[in-house]
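seq as requested:
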Amino acid sequence: MRRMKTLVALLVVAGMATGCAVGQRKWGSCAVAGGVIGATTGGILGGTLVNNLDDDASDGERGGAIAGGIVGGGLLGALLGHVICDPIAEPVAQAAPAEAPPPSGTEIAELKGAHFAFDSDRLTAEGEAQLSDTIALLNKHQDMNVVIAGHTDSVGSDAYNMNLGQRRADTVKEYLNSQAVEIGRMRTESFGETKPVASNDTAEGRAENRRVEIIVD
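struct tokens:
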């Protein structure tokens, strides 16, 4: 009985000492091999110890010592084999939290008049390049819809400016659609010259007012 208590205590100490390493490894062939070697060695040691310590030991006592040695040695051998050479488990990658789309009303792009051909609704190469980040954002957040709003300066008639703002907004919508943004996620509107952001009395102010805004719907 005393020997069994000693064996259990040794197993507990070994388990505590190797606990961290055990948690970092996958159980594999090293644990199996260690268990076989440990069981064989433990059985032999168990039989040898009972013979050396008690010349009058019965066959039952010898058998119990051998069985205890097999069990204890097998457990200890499996644990040591696992810790020594079983492969370390790869850490489970934690998925990054999904980035929330911009809230409704957020302006995600603005094209100035210079991004269109003069007095035209045709996008320039610079205008197309200006939309690259917007396209990436819209393709990333497939459930995000936008309003494409066209604005002009005050030069020309109200009707002409309203039409020009609409045509430019439609051009941007068509270009975004050509870059895999679904047409149903976009709507256009024109404000013409009705919503200036600067004075129309100066060239600089009029340039600020000629714009197309893309806003989260």
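Helices lie at 2-23, 29-53, 59-85, 125-130, 132-140, 158-178, 203-209.
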